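User: My advisor asked me to double-check a structure prediction for Lipoprotein-releasing system ATP-binding protein before group meeting. I don't want to rely on an old file, so could you generate it fresh from this sequence?
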Amino acid sequence: MLLEAIDIHKSYGNVQVLRGVNLQLQEAEVLSVMGASGAGKSTLLHILGTLDTPDRGQLIFEGTPLHAVSAKQLNKIRNQALGFVFQFHNLLPEFTALENAAMPALIQGIDKAEAYERAACLLEYLGVAHRAKHEPGRLSGGEAQRVAVARALVNHPRLVLADEPSGNLDEANAIHLHELFLKLREDFRTAFIIVTHHKELAKMADRGVWLNEGVIAEEWQRRFV
Ligand SMILES: Nc1ncnc2c1ncn2[C@@H]1O[C@H](COP(=O)(O)OP(=O)(O)OP(=O)(O)O)[C@@H](O)[C@H]1O
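Assistant: Sure, here is a fresh prediction for Lipoprotein-releasing system ATP-binding protein from the sequence you gave:
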């Protein structure tokens, strides 16, 4: 098992957002998370990605209970094993696509030549190599999002957490991005947790969960024929 979340609780003030979420993710699995606006999807994703801490409950990543590790180790796990993609790509405007994609590798102290090589390969793989020298302001929404995906993958994460990654894209680009996630799973065995409002896109995943009233109220599994 890649990730296990046990009895996750989270409140903001007296608003109980998560009231005991239990979730398991297998290696190379693609999971979609749905739920009404305000149901706590982003809150859950942030907790699963170690960007936020639960008030109660446990997170176990590749057999390691994350509450038991030091802040330094947690940072290392986050940087090396996890990747993030958000609705608004959050690329740094003053850097080129290539520099943006290489950034997490450079931050991790990977040799500059190696970091740029990895980033260039990913831009090629994602079909945006011809935009490598452009700043984000000169990219289309779909191109910028693919650069953000390259950035999320540059440290070869085991799991990518995506919060409405296609929320800002038109239908064709949104489907393309989700197809890309499935291809990345095939090619690199990367697992994905994808928050989306879009039912059709959610159905492309292996499994889906529906958050309601702070718990997983429904779950479905894709049938293979
Ligand atoms: N930092 C915060 N401080 C206070 N309240 C917060 C904070 N973050 C989220 N909330 C509240 O927690 C609830 C869940 O928010 P969250 O963003 O997780 O929902 P969501 O399901 O992702 O919603 P949406 O689909 O609209 O993005 C909301 O009521 C929100 O206002």
